[in-house]
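Supplementary Methods S3. Input chains for the assembly prediction are listed below.
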Amino acid sequence: MSSSAEHLSKRFPKSFLFGTATASYQVEGAVHADGRGASIWDVFSATPGKVKGGDTGETACDHYRLWEKDLDLMAGLGIQAYRFSIAWPRILPSGMGRPLAEGLTFYDRLIDGLLARGIQPFATFYHWDLPQALEDKGGWRNRDTAKAFADYAELLTLKFGDRLAAICTLNEPWCVTYLSHLHGIHAPGLTDLGAAMRTVHHVNLAHGLAMQAIKSVKADIPAGLVLNPQSIYPGEASERAEKAALRAFDFNNGAFYGPVYSGAYPEELVAELGPLLPEAWQEDMADIHQPGDFTGVNYYTPEHVFDAPDSHWPRARAIRRNDLPKTDLGWDIMPDAFTHCLDELKKRYALPPIYITENGACDNTEAGRGSNSGRIPDNLRLSYLESHLDQVASMIADGQEKGHDIRGYFLWSLLDNFEWAEGYSARFGIVHVDYATQERTVKDSGRWYEALIKARG
Ligand code: IFM
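Predicted structure tokens for the full assembly:
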């Protein structure tokens, strides 16, 4: 197990960062503590039928209370950087106004605790827990939310900017917009293309305004957006599928990468869906065009796409492929789709340096029996990590011309946690959480990651 880690370890430059990632609502729990306001996920998960098993983030991993233990755990594994998110309703219960001292104190201690252990803090300012008070005013469908986010970003930079290694503005605009307002799977659970396109524009604007606010406070802090680009392939060898794949790229990736990295929406998207964008959207393009110091890439699985003439633009339908191995969430495993994804982005956009801000797999393996007793042999995850880190190492080795300027890798996730609409049924952690006792157990994948990092000396 550890020899593969040591071998892989040697293929990364000395300056490369190996980290782990989590997000506030998925790990913190303590949703009523210290004046925290309600978020859209408190409301959504309390709505029957929205989350598997009726699970909520009420307790999650109790990280709000156990954070020191979790930081010690990370330090023990040799983790060099930690990407966590700040819960907007813990700082501003109604989304704006005066910050709550208790909320600020929690993240102050967390950041100081990381630094004391030699772990670099990467803070994400928005990972989906929008204050419900803002949702009541239209949420991301309302342009004012973009401005509220920029004000909040300015406040966080003033408070924490002196100690953060980097800032990620928002996590995965695709999920904030399409998954939440078109597919209805995430909070607030809408299924409305018009609402989705308004949110696309407002989320892009939120990033642009926040970048400017962050830089006005601290010009030299590395900041950037975290996206989950789809690695899109035609589902069959036909012109129709090829065209559908190009349209799917524009809709799922171009709607975000275009404005942020090139200052423009894809032409066909504007021709087809332009009327659904907010009025005078063109006037915001200069504000949105903020590539930042790095771009965060969250990659998990490929998309194989077919023509779907009867559905709305992009008239494309993705399928899972029968011939590919699957994670325990049924997601296709295809390591070279990771490289394909970055190659396709590079063809179209001048991207800043890259951090892989999330990558990992759902593997629900529990404690082993017999000779494996006491261990959690999560072999699926371990081989997923091995094969995907192998791709990252090759992308770096291929150099600037053919390869990619990747500076670090954040494994999703440090802990098993609340996997949104899947509740606690899907485990992504390299550390197992027993939700009844809050006991943490490092899995085999965690030991493997530890060996990989420690082999660097
Ligand atoms: O758990 C999520 C995370 O919040 C965002 N990126 C994908 C992960 C796995 O689904």
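The chain has 17 helices and 13 strands. The chain has one domain: 2-454.
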